């Protein structure tokens, strides 16, 4: 369990630790104001788009092997590239790689806990996960501000996740013993995955930039095009998923009592809002932070708004 919580903590920390470092990062890389939002949004897009695919891969391959691959091969590589990036395009590409690894970590940690923990004990382990999330979401901006103000520099906001990921890898190797139960006749619905990825990405881009200076208003022709296109893609996803034999997201899951019960909705809402709020805080006020506030001030402000 310690390895799973360490992996989850590393994934969440990589999202929030850059919040207070963004002004320094963009200024050092000579990026534009647009880059502020994209540093966060690209990671969130890759995370959201890859999560259902990771879940389907968990039905075919070993969950332990997949979570170790996502944390070492993908996440660590993305963190190292981001740390050595010398311009904004390379940094954004590295954030995409990080986002794919983060999607695997968050999805597979929950899948493994569901496989090895009995239903009677899952409430207690959900509490452990909630505490890990709270520490990562609250401590990330503080740690990012400390690193930026220190002689280490902003690049260590990415490098600091590497040793944490390596520790999580060895903890997983030592503590997790899970039997691979490969389902029969399972295949990946690539068309459904593509439509789902495109729909979620379009809506996330719309939410990320609507209402900001230099983009478009919440109520505008551009917003209508984004929302209409995203909903159309998601409607196509529902149509495809209802007809294939191995859907990427089974539609019947939304009608099951476990996932549709009122008691499960607050935790789902809190999870989404907390992660989105962190990314929104770090991208919606870049001018004020970069012009008047130091990373030290910003980290305490973001931490106090938990």
UniProtKB/TrEMBL annotation:
Query: What does UniProt give as GO cellular component?
Result: plasma membrane
The regions listed as transmembrane in this protein's record are 35-54, 66-86, 92-113, 125-147, 153-172, 193-211, 223-240
Its annotated compartments are:
Cell membrane
Q: Member of which family?
A: Belongs to the major facilitator superfamily. TCR/Tet family.
Q: What is this protein called?
A: Putative drug resistance efflux protein
- UniProt keyword terms in alphabetical order: Cell membrane, Membrane, Signal, Transmembrane, Transmembrane helix, Transport
Domain Major facilitator superfamily (MFS) profile per the UniProt entry, residue ranges: 1-306
The upper taxonomy is: Bacteria, Bacillati, Actinomycetota, Actinomycetes, Mycobacteriales
Kindly give the membrane topology term recorded for this protein: Multi-pass membrane protein
């Amino acid at each position: 369990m310690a390895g799973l919580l360490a992996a989850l903590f590393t994934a969440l920390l990589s999202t929030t630790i850059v919040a207070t470092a963004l002004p320094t990062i963009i200024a050092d890389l000579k990026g534009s104001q647009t880059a502020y939002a994209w540093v966060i949004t690209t990671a969130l897009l890759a995370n959201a788009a890859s999560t259902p695919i990771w879940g389907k891969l968990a039905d075919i391959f070993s969950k332990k092997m997949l979570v170790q691959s996502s944390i070492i091969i993908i996440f660590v590589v993305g963190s190292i590239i981001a740390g050595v990036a010398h311009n904004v395009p390379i940094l954004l590409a590295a954030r995409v790689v990080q986002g794919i690894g983060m999607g695997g970590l968050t999805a597979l940690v929950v899948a493994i806990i569901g496989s090895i923990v009995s239903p009677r004990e899952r409430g207690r382990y959900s509490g452990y996960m909630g505490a890990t999330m709270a520490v990562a979401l609250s401590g990330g901006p503080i740690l990012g501000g400390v690193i930026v103000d220190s002689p280490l520099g902003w690049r260590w906001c990415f490098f600091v996740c590497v040793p944490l990921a390596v520790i999580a890898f060895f903890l997983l190797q030592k503590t997790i013993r899970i039997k691979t139960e490969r389902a029969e006749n399972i295949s990946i619905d690539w068309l459904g995955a593509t439509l789902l990825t495109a729909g979620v990405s379009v809506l996330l881009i719309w939410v990320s930039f609507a209402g900001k200076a230099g983009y478009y208003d919440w109520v505008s022709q551009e917003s209508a095009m984004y929302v209409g296109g995203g909903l159309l893609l998601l409607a196509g996803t529902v149509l495809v998923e209802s007809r294939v034999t191995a859907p990427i997201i089974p539609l019947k899951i939304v009608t099951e009592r476990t996932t549709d019960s009122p008691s499960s909705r607050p935790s789902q809402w809190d999870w989404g809002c907390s992660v989105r709020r962190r990314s929104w805080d770090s991208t919606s006020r870049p001018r004020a932070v970069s012009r008047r506030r130091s990373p030290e001030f910003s980290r305490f402000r973001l931490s106090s708004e938990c």
